[in-house]
Amino acid sequence: MSNDDYLLAALRLAAGNDPVPNHVSAAASEAYSLRIPHVVTAASIECVAMRTVRGVAGPTTVRFATDDVTFDLELTVNDGLIDVAGQILPYPGEGSHVDVRTPHMTMSRQLAGTGQFAVTGMPPGWFNVVCHRPGKPPVATRWLRIRP
Amino acid sequence: MGDPRAVAELLAAATDDDRMAWDELVARFTPRMWSVVRACGLNDADAADAVQGAWLRLVENLHTIRNPAGLGAWLTTTARREALRVLRRELVPLPHDIAEDSDPAAAILEADAHRLLWQAISSLNEPCRTLLTLMAHRVGNQQSAVRLGLPLGSIGPSRERCLKKLRTLISPEETVQ
């Protein structure tokens, strides 16, 4: 892509004939409520889209990590909705839980002793996963966008 | 942006739990972010995702923006990267792809130079003057060819040549914030 994107955008902005839809501004405003105090953000370090032996698109796996926590997420599109199966390693301890968040809803899951969790039927779009650990700051993945 | 200090102040206030400051940033910068992602060729739904993604990146990086006065350029650069990621169907940025450095060309948008742009376009010869005006109004290549009486195949190269001329005309302002 060239920098003409910016020039073209400036021209169209100056022409004023492609106004921002209201729902786009509303979504930008609502993003503010998704802040989490003292959160540590885990960087994405690996993303693999798997295919079945017949070449059909399968789950996508994504790994996020900080110095002391790793998130392994497996994302599957199922009838237009998103299923997330994940594991937090090492297990953050008793009383810990994860929030799987979209801009509009949060689904909480207590973590099993293996650190595993699952959420099904999420709407497509943006989401992230936050791990709350007793006595330690929460850790969040970066936001991911998944659409069928 | 007329007053870069105001942006830095708004960012500091938003970081400090001031929702009105955040909404002011949204009102100020979303139109240019929208224009950038649309210029990348995204449809309405994907463009909405890309702009939302850029604001979510700001939520992720709210405490670590290195140059608060340059937030507008950071947001437009981030929106463009999210747009390209949508086009490539990438889920998430990898660590090397963090929008810390803004593209100098984004300064065209930053300068908010609408009047300057139209002045520059008016000073161009034909067919550039009309072609760029048609582009600004999202008129397609075929219709532009008819209106200008040019072969369809010449519109692409003409467009490139005209944008290059326009860029040259406004280049001193490109570097001025």
Structure description:
- The complex is a heterodimer of chains A (148) and B (177).
- Chain A has one domain: Immunoglobulin-like, CATH 2.60.40.
- Helix content of chain A is 14%, strand content 47%.
- Chain A contains two helices and ten strands; from the N terminus they run H-H-E-E-E-E-E-E-E-E-E-E.
- In chain A, strands 1, 2, 3, 4, 5, 6, 7, 8, 9 and 10 form a ten-stranded mixed sheet that branches.
- In chain A, strand 5 and strand 6 (106-110) form a beta hairpin.
- Chain A is globular and about 60 Å long.
- The model of chain A has no long low-confidence stretch (mean pLDDT 89).
- The N and C termini of chain B lie close together (7 Å).
- Mean pLDDT of chain B is 83; it is low at 173-177.
- Chains A and B meet through helix 1, helix 2, strand 1 and strand 10 of A and helix 2, helix 3, helix 4, helix 6 and helix 7 of B.
